[in-house]
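Example 3.2
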Amino acid sequence: MDVVKSILEDNQGKADLSKSTKVHKDVELDIDLGTLLASDYNPLDAKTLKSKSETYLRNLTRDNVQLLINEIWQLPVERVDEAIVATLPKPEYILPRSRVIPKPKPLTKWQLFAKEKGIQTKKKGKSKLKWDEELKKWIPTHGYKRAKAEEQKEWLVEAKGNGDSTEDPFSKTKSAKQERQSKNELQRLRNIAKSKNVKLPRVGLPTREHFSNSQQLSEALTVARTSTASVGKFQSRLPKEKDAKGIAKEMSGMKRKRKAPPLNPIEEKRQNKGLIDSVLKSSTKILRDDCSTGIAEIKQSAASGSKKRKGALKNNKSKTAKKPKAGKKERNLHKKVGGRKRR
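Structure, written as tokens:
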């Protein structure tokens, strides 16, 4: 406090302050020094706010900030590197959050091991290139260019005396690398499952705890088989294995199987005829207005209806007049000859 008094005394003789540091308020401000928050509950002057809004808001802000600074000067202060620093108390006002505070990410097995053993990885300042004595050039520490550099170095592999002469050492090295990559990917997936509290079997096949029904097991098999660059095109299938239902919508790359359109009208006619035959031969009944007629009854009614129509046509033919005959040879306009009248 002695430092604050000395500063105020020095400033009094140098310059006259335009406004006093003392500010009067009808209702005292609610000040939280921990968050440097000042809440003013005094009513606003509506007339002055409408007429001189900028001047009124500027003066109001200045008075409130002055009251906040006056409260800060009441705190214990100290000088640090030619600057006066005040020690703020713990905040009392609880700031609301729109979301829950995120939980800390769980450590992986390697991170836990490094923490126990005190291993520290220094990434800053590490060069991305290193000098290769064999190639006599700078190569990157990781990336596709490093893989190409390794291929250039391993262009020759020494054959062992007790090894198989028919075995390709390059393919053996490639398969070993793929196996290491698969092992690393499996470990990565296990770390993800551990962070999300997903139970995984230690050895063997999954149990009923992971797949409660056959549909889930079928979906897991389909996802595992289609998780390749070719979407499972070249993967072998189990006997009588089929894709899970509705999995094509979830798996990107899989397409639902659709029938190809007919190649010609004859093929289309054959497909339509087969569809009609399957409908007529099925055990389901074709309902009419009375909702009680089956296939056999429909055929009988159709046959009887056709016979009635034929009989009606015969009766109509007998009742109607005979068809007039046309004239033969040359036509004589002065004689009446039967036939159709021309217009």
